[in-house]
Amino acid sequence: MSLQPPEPIHTAAGLVRGRRDGALTVFRGIPYAAAPVGQHRFALPQPVEPWAGIRDATDAGPNAPQRTRAVPGLDARPLIGEGWRRGDNYLSLDIWQPAGGRTAMPVMVFIHGGGFVVGGKDAAVQDGATFARDGILYVAINYRMGVDGFLPIPDVPTNLGLRDMIAALAWVRDNIVQFGGDPANVTVFGESAGAMAIADLIASPLAKGLFARAIVQSGHGGMTRDIGVAQRLVRAVARRLDITADRAGFASVAPGEPLLDAVEAVSLPAARIDLRNPDGREPVFGISRFVPVHGDDVLPLAPLDALKQGAGADVQLLIGSNAEEMNLYLVPSGVRDKLNTGLGRLLAWFVLRKSQPQAWRVLKAYGMGRGKPVGQALTDALTDLVFRWPARRFAEEHRGATHMYEFGWRSPRYDGELGASHGMELPFVFDSLATCTGADGLCGIAPPQDLATRVHAIWVQFARDGSLPWAPFDRERRTVYKLAADEAVSEPVMPAAAFLP
């Protein structure tokens, strides 16, 4: 005997009907803004046109235009999804609704990562069923990426990807009570680029009041550019496309392969695009060309400066990083080990010098010349410069309740060298180890389920009431909770502190 379909639910634009998934109800592809095409392309997110009747909300729908890249020896699909699913209506969200017709449930809204150029709400590792199982009303969103979302084209509103996220959070505020959620108890969380975006939203006056708590996983507010600097990238992309570097020029190129070709070309390490600040630092370290900008109404100030003035003080913050973040970028590619031979020192300096004017001093501070292999010194330095220390700086400047974690479980992949790399915490946070287990999986064979159970429970409890089982972080005591070891420690200041603001 088949289950009866769930009752339709009212939203501001019309009725939606999801599908049963065991004891849960899942809604897929609910639009929170109009399709960003035609007159709505390169425009602020616009309201959805109301519909008549009941909208079927059982298909995930399209995602933002993107092109994924393979990682040698690693099945990355559970982390970033299956690639571009074409279609116009991709400014949408999914909802996992717990069973039982409960009301005033805590809400968690997930913002995916992917360097602001790839990814989507539907990657297998971030399935919301486990959070719904534990009484959380879970929401996941798509947003504009790449050229359409994070390129400050003249005559186009800046930070359109962040504005999409703000529109999605406003949709949650206005509609989530119909699904049984409490709009006053919303936790926004995300990883990598998603976490960077959340840190920016904490600092944004336009996002004030849209969430009570935030979890920033392997992210911080240090990866934004001045608009003037970022417009160098606008001109570089325009040259690749042979168009004028303005709204009319970019509007003449439809979302599709030529645009993705240009994104890929300017993203290559060999692309000679100087995105350094006047102080000689490139705050993104080449991880992505496409990032949010500051100096507009979304981010009037760089996020750290905004925090110093009290922005986001009403938001409870859980922020952290993984112990060996850069291993994901430098171990599977073989770059780390290649630097240990021949001209390794010179190459390591050359790589780091593109982003950090004191490259020699940094490498020496991280052990180069004192018995540590050159490739390892660069990997350790970049882990701290790109992820770990900026997260601590964000925690230092945040004036509200702040807790910090570090994830240190080491994957056995790549002969044990992948370690606690970037993205490693995700299957533990979501209690979705099965998606990343196996010979080609991020976690290898038989990762510890007891750790996933415990980490997931910490995230759930924080979303319920903001409580955490360790002391807050401040710049004097520097309390960091080591998730894998299940202990809080007082962490020393890192060598990277001497080289970053």
From TrEMBL:
<dbReference type="InterPro" id="IPR002018">
    <property type="entry name" value="CarbesteraseB"/>
</dbReference>
<dbReference type="InterPro" id="IPR050309">
    <property type="entry name" value="Type-B_Carboxylest/Lipase"/>
</dbReference>
<protein>
    <recommendedName>
        <fullName>Carboxylic ester hydrolase</fullName>
        <ecNumber>3.1.1.-</ecNumber>
    </recommendedName>
</protein>
<dbReference type="InterPro" id="IPR019826">
    <property type="entry name" value="Carboxylesterase_B_AS"/>
</dbReference>
<keyword id="KW-0378">Hydrolase</keyword>
<comment type="similarity">
    <text>Belongs to the type-B carboxylesterase/lipase family.</text>
</comment>
<dbReference type="Pfam" id="PF00135">
    <property type="entry name" value="COesterase"/>
</dbReference>
<feature type="domain" description="Carboxylesterase type B">
    <location>
        <begin position="9"/>
        <end position="486"/>
    </location>
</feature>
<dbReference type="InterPro" id="IPR029058">
    <property type="entry name" value="AB_hydrolase_fold"/>
</dbReference>
